[in-house]
Amino acid sequence: MYKINLIYVQAKLLECIKFILYHCNMSREKDDFYPTPDYATHSFIKHYDIREGSPHVWSKDVWEPACGDGAISKILEKDYDMRVVSTDLVDRGYGQSGIDFLMETKIQAPWVVTNPPYKLANEFVMKCLDFMEQEQHFNGFAMLLRLAFLEGQGRHDKIFSRKAPSKVMVFSKRLTMIRGDHDEAWYGSGKMAFAWFIWDRIEKDTVLTWIND
Ligand SMILES: C[S@@+](CC[C@H](N)C(=O)[O-])C[C@H]1O[C@@H](n2cnc3c(N)ncnc32)[C@H](O)[C@@H]1O
């Protein structure tokens, strides 16, 4: 009886440690590697198919500039017949590594689609806004971001007042984001509110929709 209780206490203790690590920055992967769940990429194309939009946004060519292990790129290529240039700062066994997106000066495709590193989300969006202003062939970009990206005075001043997103597609069901080097069993499910934020050259006002598949 005493033995069973000890095992129970140990298991609870481990759970607590995991919980604390998960919710503290201590546990964050250095370069923010959290692969996108397949469902999120399929939902993007289902609800905003950049292959078939108006001629102005139409493009089968995409740049995934923080491709990780290719979670988004592979689906766009294999399931939607798109051509994806995949780059990342870190070698994760997919695409071209050693490329810091924030240092890039030329676009690799008319669209960017990515789930950026969270701690550099503002910088990634601002970099794409620069491209939109500087490169007339850059048609738009889609980023999988936390829903909370919408808030914040600083972000409003730096990003939304410069150009509001054309579309925000909110996931009604929270997404499970797991560190790329751990599995769900280790962390439990880190469910978070996410949305696809899309900036294109067409819409002037922000359209808000829900992904409720
Ligand atoms: C949240 S993960 C997402 C990976 C992939 N986009 C996906 O959807 O599965 C962010 C990725 O950004 C990469 N990264 C971090 N800083 C970067 C930078 N400055 N330039 C390019 N990639 C970067 C990380 O190595 C990591 O693979």
Give the arrangement of secondary structure elements.
Elements: H1 2-23, H2 38-47, E1 61-64, H3 71-80, E2 83-86, E3 111-114, H4 121-134, E4 140-146, H5 153-160, E5 167-171, E6 175-176, H6 184-187, E7 191-192, E8 194-200, E9 207-211
Parallel strand pairs: 1-2, 3-4, 5-9
Antiparallel strand pairs: 4-8, 5-8, 6-7
Helix pairs in contact: 2-3
Bound molecules: S-adenosylmethionine.
S-adenosylmethionine binds near residues 31, 36 and 120.
What does this structure look like?
This protein has 213 residues and is an alpha/beta fold. The chain has a single domain (27-211), classed as Rossmann fold, CATH 3.40.50.150. The chain is 32% helix and 19% strand. It contains 6 helices and 9 strands. It has helices spanning 2-23, 38-47, 71-80, 121-134, 153-160, 184-187, and strands at 61-64, 83-86, 111-114, 140-146, 167-171, 175-176, 191-192, 194-200, 207-211. The N and C termini lie far apart (47 Å). Mean pLDDT is 87; it is low at 184-188. The protein binds S-adenosylmethionine. S-adenosylmethionine binds next to helix 3.
| Second-tier CATH architecture | 3-Layer(aba) Sandwich
Low-confidence stretches: 184-188
Write the CATH homologous superfamily: Vaccinia Virus protein VP39
Strand portion: 15-25%
Main sheet summary: 5 strands, mixed
Give the overall average pLDDT: 87
In brief, what are we looking at here?
With 213 residues, this protein is α/β, with parallel strands linked by helices.
